[in-house]
Amino acid sequence: MNERLRTVMLQRGYTPGRLARACDVNSKTVERWLSSGRIPHRETRWTVAHELDVDEVYLWPELLAERDADERQDAVQSEFVGVFPDRASVPRDTWLQLVGSATRHIDVLVYCGTFMANVMPRIADMLAERAGAGVQVRLCWGDPTSAAVDIRDREEGLRGALPHKIRAALTYYRSLVDVPGCEVRLHATTLYASLFRFDDVMLANPHMWGAPASANPLLHLRRLEGSTWFDGYRRSFDAVWETAQPWDQSV
């Protein structure tokens, strides 16, 4: 029995027949709404709610879960800006614009990240400039001595090259070690995605097994109220960052 619907109908002076005529349905259909708890189709629900001057969720509380799910889906779709088929497809101007326009946060989580210096030869100077403007810069590379890097090296068939590539990549950032607002750490975790955050923009580069990050797709996300993907990846970065160790340049 749908007591809420029955009570509101009585309060508003609606019989099953009157409500049926307003909704262009059979009176037996209205009786089934009352006796069996059956929920009308969406358009009919809206008509009922309008006629009785009440929110449809009050009449059918089960709809609340459906509405929440729809709102979550809308939030995911709105924070999803687009996708690049692979990281190598991201234009150089995009990276330059994102780094140069950041005002609060620049976070990087990678194993190696050699491409950054290749795409932006002045990357260290650019990051130092951003830090000088008050941006918090956090750079997190894979620890070349860690088991996680060794596993990744074997999965990609690099034959021991990955630790050397990481050490080579890190040389571009030596000047940042003593720059206020910049911090470089090494992590020893399994990465499921390389992450690049610039304020409320996140570029997430999921890793496919055995394939280099440059050949994997890249998600372009923006942070909104109620974001799920952006905030999930942000929390992922923070969790890895907490376990990472400050870069000892002798490594």
Write up this protein.
With 251 residues, this protein is of the alpha+beta class. Helix content is 48%, strand content 17%. The protein is built from twelve helices and eight strands. The chain has an eight-stranded mixed β-sheet with strand order 1-7-6-5-2-3-4-8, with helices on both faces.
Alpha plus pi helix count: 12
Give the overall silhouette.
Answer: elongated
- Strand and helix order: HHHHHHEHEHHEHHEEEEHE
Q: Please state the CA-atom Rg, rounded to the nearest Å.
A: 27 Å
Kindly report the oligomeric state of this protein: single chain
Topology:
Layout: H1 3-12, H2 16-23, H3 27-36, H4 42-52, H5 56-59, H6 63-79, E1 80-84, H7 92-101, E2 105-109, H8 114-119, H9 123-132, E3 136-142, H10 147-155, H11 161-170, E4 182-187, E5 193-198, E6 201-206, E7 218-222, H12 229-243, E8 245-246
Parallel strand pairs: 2-3, 3-4
Antiparallel strand pairs: 1-7, 2-5, 4-8, 5-6, 6-7
Helix pairs in contact: 2-3
